[in-house]
TrEMBL record:
<dbReference type="GO" id="GO:0018773">
    <property type="term" value="F:acetylpyruvate hydrolase activity"/>
</dbReference>
<keyword id="KW-0413">Isomerase</keyword>
<protein>
    <submittedName>
        <fullName>5-carboxymethyl-2-hydroxymuconate isomerase</fullName>
    </submittedName>
</protein>
<dbReference type="InterPro" id="IPR011234">
    <property type="entry name" value="Fumarylacetoacetase-like_C"/>
</dbReference>
<dbReference type="InterPro" id="IPR036663">
    <property type="entry name" value="Fumarylacetoacetase_C_sf"/>
</dbReference>
<dbReference type="GO" id="GO:0016853">
    <property type="term" value="F:isomerase activity"/>
</dbReference>
<dbReference type="Pfam" id="PF01557">
    <property type="entry name" value="FAA_hydrolase"/>
</dbReference>
Length: 228
């Protein structure tokens, strides 16, 4: 007899490049305004301030290569991000120890219903309706840090229908990956299976059905997604 009163929901997973294995996802943390130029384009001061995070749901991550245009929005934006996935965690992790908890990296998109997010901002309400909707985080197959190391610099770009929309470099992140992990661990108990989306450079803009998005992070990989 099952110990569960309903059928157990499937565990969200991300494929691992070149293998049949998958990475099981526990939580998804997203850092906001982590590139100065993006902070400016969103109407905020680019000076370094304490980082802030919001969450997506584990099953928002999607590796199908398709992004279904969501309902209740006419202004859905792309945000290309480095995905950092953890093999271990804890609390009060020191910056100098943080990378020892990283399993690997990927290329992801934080798709955003910008109009709904804007309404929530004006009302002082949470952002989930604009950020944590179904399949709102397309992601490519992960690559282990054992293979590529821990990238701290490298070109980040997003093209829509072969037109360059976003560009930047990992070295432009205001809060670096070890700092993000350390800061998060002061407020949450991190664990294996956690995913951190590390922020987006400037150039965020709307997509429409039929668009093809291609995101690239030097040394990490490429993500191709069709808006359907």
């Amino acid at each position: 007899m099952s110990e569960y009163v309903i059928e157990q929901p499937p565990v969200p997973t991300i494929p691992v490049e070149g293998t049949g294995a998958t990475f099981p996802v526990r939580r998804v943390y997203c850092i906001g305004r982590n590139y100065a130029a993006h902070a400016v384009e969103m109407g905020h001061d680019p000076d370094r301030e304490d980082p802030f995070f919001f969450q997506k749901n584990p099953n928002n991550l999607d590796s199908s290569g398709e992004f279904p245009y969501p309902d209740h929005s006419q202004d859905v934006h792309h945000e290309i991000e480095l995905a950092v996935v953890l093999k271990s965690g804890g609390t009060n992790i020191k910056v100098e120890d943080a990378l020892s908890h990283v399993w690997g990296y990927g290329v992801s998109l934080d798709m955003t219903r910008r109009d709904l997010q804007g309404e929530m901002k004006k009302a002082g309400r949470p952002w989930e309706i604009g950020k944590a909707f179904e399949r709102s985080a397309p992601i490519n197959a992960l690559v282990p840090a054992d293979k590529i190391g821990h990238p701290s610099e490298g070109r980040v770009e997003l093209l829509v229908n072969d037109e360059l929309r976003q560009e930047g470099d990992l070295n432009q992140m205001i809060w670096k990956v070890p700092e993000m992990i350390s800061y998060l661990s002061d407020y949450f108990e991190l664990a294996a299976g956690d995913v951190i989306l590390a922020g987006t450079p400037s150039g965020v803009a709307a997509v429409k059905k039929g668009d093809t998005m291609v995101g690239k992070i030097e040394g990490v990989g490429e993500l191709k997604v069709k808006v359907v």
